[in-house]
Specification:
Layout: H1 9-15, E1 21-27, H2 31-48, E2 52-58, H3 65-75, E3 79-83, H4 90-100, E4 105-108, H5 120-128, E5 133-138, H6 145-163, E6 175-178, H7 179-182, H8 195-201, E7 206-211, H9 226-244, H10 248-276, H11 285-317
Bound molecules: uridine-5'-diphosphate and magnesium ion.
């Protein structure tokens, strides 16, 4: 979890340090991949002719990964390593990478050589054309069909539809971000894949390009079908955040009203059967249904009001602004 605010580009420039590009990679038991990966990555970055740093986040590896990374860092000060205390998962590892990155452009990547460092130059070209986020799209993905590609394709379509940000491949790690768009995101669960969505909501220009994808040659994938289920839950959160975060009562209140309406209908029908057909209330599920629905309706509405209170605390305690500004002209005081 983030402890401090990410510095803005201006703050870094004022301090006069920080490379142009930060590539960060979560590493979990990738001992055999680190050598060849570091070689290819360095080669690709040298060709750019820009200043860079490479940040490896060791996510509690139990193999020799951290030793390999230490060796790399000892040879080159531009290689920086953060070792997490335990295995927190890819998203948390990426958060750590973002928090420690000093570059103006941030590029996350997998450490298993499934992403190709040679694609970085193409991502940067797009950024240079004025985009804030460039997402990689593994057009020719080399993973298992049934457990990975099909669920992922369904999930990508769902996410695109629900978020209103049409991308083919949210799950692709290789992306490029301008620092500004990351300064306000907090990552939970499997949510690193949703960064382009947050960015777009905050007014960023988002695009995608096809990138290469290779089969894993060493080590094992850490995921299977279960990840898709987590992604679906995160999607529900995203939808809630996007549509109801500022007004949860709209959601809970609607559910409450539906329950109350159902309660009213079943109550009326119960009385109809009692007085017209002379059926005893005890013999009817409708009367019970009416009472359950009534209680649920009231509950939902109160839950909504509670949620409203929580949301206010959430926004106010963190001093979250209700709007974000892209540019200020002729305004001296940045704090307004
Ligand atoms: N990873 C991590 N922590 C974890 C699981 C994975 O840091 O708990 C890293 C892993 O080392 C790799 C990246 O996240 O660099 C993607 O993992 P993986 O290749 O297993 O996922 P897949 O490509 O199969 O989706
Ligand atoms: Mg992989």
């Amino acid at each position: 979890m983030r402890e401090y605010r990410l510095k803005t580009v201006e703050e870094f420039e004022r301090e006069g340090r920080g490379p142009e590009i930060s590539v960060f990679l979560p590493v979990y038991n990738e001992e055999e991949n680190i050598g060849p990966l570091d070689f290819k990555l360095r080669q690709a970055l040298e060709e750019l002719g820009r200043t860079y740093e490479i940040i490896y986040v060791d996510d509690g590896s139990t193999d020799e990964s951290l030793d390999r990374l230490r060796e790399r860092a000892a040879q080159d000060p531009r290689v920086r390593v953060i070792a997490l205390r335990r295995n927190y998962g890819q998203t948390a590892a990426m958060s750590a990478g973002i928090d420690h990155a000093r570059g103006k452009i941030l590029i996350p990547m997998d450490a298993d050589l499934q992403n190709d460092p040679a694609d970085i130059i193409r991502l940067l070209e797009k950024l240079d054309r004025g985009y804030d986020v460039v997402s990689g799209w593994r057009k020719d993905r080399k993973d298992k069909w049934l457990t990975r590609r099909i669920p992922s394709s369904i999930a990508n379509r769902l996410i695109s539809k629900i978020s209103g940000v049409p991308l083919h491949d949210y799950g692709c790690s290789l992306k490029a971000y301008r620092r500004d768009v990351l300064s306000d995101v907090k990552l939970y669960g499997e949510m690193h894949r949703f960064i382009p969505i947050y960015a777009k909501w905050a007014g960023a220009r988002v695009t995608e390009i096809p990138v290469a994808h290779h089969a894993r040659h060493a080590g094992r994938s850490k995921y299977g079908l279960s990840r898709t289920i987590k992604v679906v839950f995160d999607l529900i959160t995203i939808k809630f955040m996007s549509s109801y975060l500022t007004k949860p009562l709209y959601l809970f209140g609607t559910a409450g009203l539906i329950c109350l309406a159902l309660s009213f209908i079943s109550g009326l029908s119960a009385f109809y059967y009692k007085f017209v057909h002379d059926v005893h209330l005890n013999r009817m599920p409708l009367a019970t249904l009416a009472m359950i629905m009534f209680a649920m309706g009231i509950q939902f509405i109160f839950m909504g009001l509670l949620a409203e209170m929580i949301v206010r605390t959430y926004h106010e305690s963190q001093g979250k602004p209700t709007y974000l500004v892209r540019e200020r002209i002729n305004i001296e005081d940045e704090s307004e």
